[in-house]
């Protein structure tokens, strides 16, 4: 059995976000809950993610959105363990004051080293928090497969994705590849 950990970004992915849909609908999905969704602190968030992964008895797949992608990149520098893969959706460019709010600057600089597990970066052409070229750079540096899903904004609730079946298909693909290695 595999445990999937949903890792929201700034604000915590509200009830209509695809991450929340997945956490409610899929028994293998659990949400990583941070103490303060609106004032993220990198050290505290990394510790919370580490504790969540450590609490899992089975292999783990991470499902991160926005600032959650930067969190995974920071966490992976010192950890790894049973994590077999990560779906990294709409990574926020924490290095860019032009694209992201000041609250995320504590996650800069974005780690640009290969991740120690399989991963897919999913990006939108009109995401206000990361230009497509920068999202592709993250994927290249992390050793991730890159998925351009066209114009889907920040790939969040405002994009009207509901439970985002195309994202579930990507998660299934990631799990199939990561768990057979």
UniProtKB/TrEMBL annotation:
Question: Transmembrane region positions?
Answer: none
Keyword rRNA-binding set for record: no
- Which Gene3D superfamilies does the entry mention? alpha/beta hydrolase
Q: Which UniProt keywords apply?
A: Hydrolase
Molecular function in Gene Ontology: hydrolase activity
Cross-referenced InterPro entries, in alphabetical order? Answer: AB_hydrolase_fold, RBBP9/YdeN
The answer, when asked if Hydrolase is one of the entry's keywords, is yes
Pfam families recorded: Ser_hydrolase
Q: Which named protein is this?
A: Alpha/beta hydrolase
Q: Which organism is it from?
A: Denitromonas iodatirespirans
For this protein's source organism, the top of the classification is: Bacteria, Pseudomonadati, Pseudomonadota, Betaproteobacteria, Rhodocyclales
